[in-house]
Amino acid sequence: MIGAPRTIICVVNWFWRRxxxxxxxxxxxxxxxxxxxxxxxxxxxxxVATFLGQAAYLQLxxxxxxxxxIRATPELAEKxxxxxxxxxxxxxxxxxxxxxxxxxxxPTEVMLPFREQLDAFRRATIGARPRETMLSVxxxxxxxxxxxLALASSYGTIGRRVSEILGEAADREQIEGIxxxxxxxxxxxxxxxxxxxxxxxxxxxxxxxxxxxxxxxGLDDEKKVEPVFTALMAAHARRMDALGLSA
Length: 247
Known about the structure:
Number of domains: 1
CATH superfamily: Ferritin, core subunit, four-helix bundle
Order of helices and strands: HHHHHHHHHH
Radius of gyration: 17 Å
Structural class: mainly alpha
Shape: globular
């Protein structure tokens, strides 16, 4: 699933040197399952089993990361905030698993090919401190949920159902509040989290890029993909601004 290194490096480097265009393509808003924001890159989308398997396993991974954070966090209020987000993530995972069982086949077999790659991604985005890992979930889950929402337009009825699932509230607002309070109160943590967020972007873009086919994109394909990744970065910048950090 992972594309050729040279192609991936070019995709990632593109974001760091390109200024945002005046017109920003908007991703589908949360809960909107219409066709107004459809992006025409269906021929680059993976088969439906790959799409569903990756989406389901990503949600399971976020649930596991949040569960680890709950155990490592002594403050009850923070445990509650993390539990709320973990519960919502597990709900999304189960809903996608049900869709896999209904439309594709055995969910375990469908998810298994992506276990190694996505576990490696999750390990790479677990921070040395709980606040870093909270930021990892907030940033990477936000970006990848947006990406899979955009990709879902390629799969007809199944895609619309996935859009409904991923478009549900993520219940990460309290985590955002915890992070914002930390950033406002501690300049050292502000600097550390800002640097950590920049590192997360590259790893997350690689995961998104690896979901597309073929491994090497031609110029016409790059033009189709470019607005989607531009929109991902615009949404990421808004998340960072909301936290009081610069993208």
